[in-house]
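Reading a protein record of the kind used here takes only a little practice. Think of the row as the fold of the chain written in a discrete alphabet. With that in mind, consider the following protein and its fold in token form:
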Amino acid sequence: MESIVNQRYELLSGYSMPVLGLGTWQLVGFACARVVSRAIELGYRHIDTAELYGNENEIGQALGGVDRSDLFLVSKVSSSHLHTNDVTRACRGSLKRLGTDYLDLYLIHWPNDEIPIGETMEGMRYLVEEGMVRSIGVCNFDVPRLREAMAASRVPICNDQVEYHPYRHRRAIPQFCQEHDIALTAYCPLARGRVNHDPLLIRIGRKYGKSPAQVSLRWLLQKGAIVIPKASSVEHLKANMDMDGWDLSEEDMRAIDENGIEAKLVDAMYT
């Protein structure tokens, strides 16, 4: 079986995206640069950031010695910069801070109903045509918003990044993305650490000699999602890579799917 760090999702743009990445939300300053540098040393090649995170400079510094063609860099334009010209300016800022000529994937961080989606998608198209961005996508878009963005875009929307974990199952969005060949990225795949205390995930993990966090990541991967767990230690960086050579059984997948009334209630509210 191919190692998790080498597995990739083929995007509608013709490029491919590693299925395991490093999330960097709330990583700032020297700590951010240190974590990203160690992640690269361990084999991570997919790094996710955003202009709102305030850490693009540190990430750029950490990537200084790496062949750019080996990396998959993702950033996001904030919801206040979605007018056509603002999209371009925001992207130029991210490129400068990251020290790169292009982004592999550029996402609309949050929808903004006060700015027509057509304006935003025109800015995204320009970035692709100018070679500043290879692939585009959205973040925190539900199915109706995703449909609207697709209808307004002249270049393919390749990715939707949403909060996705065992307590937020996201049934409608994964199905829609699968039907339209859109990659789905799960952010906060460990539910901000909550999975570590879940009795079911602990019990399932013992069967495989894995932690509850690893079970959560494996569950998402087997559902076809791309995962970008955040980590702040080498131990956790390594653990999040330990996805090779094991799969959850259909029974265990189903048990996580059906785990608790709360997840079903969240589904009803948000999908």
User: Anything to note?
Assistant: The beta strands are 8-10, 16-18, 22-23, 46-48, 72-77, 103-108, 133-139, 157-163, 183-187, 226-227. Residues 265-271 have pLDDT under 50 and may be disordered. The chain has one domain: 4-193+224-245.
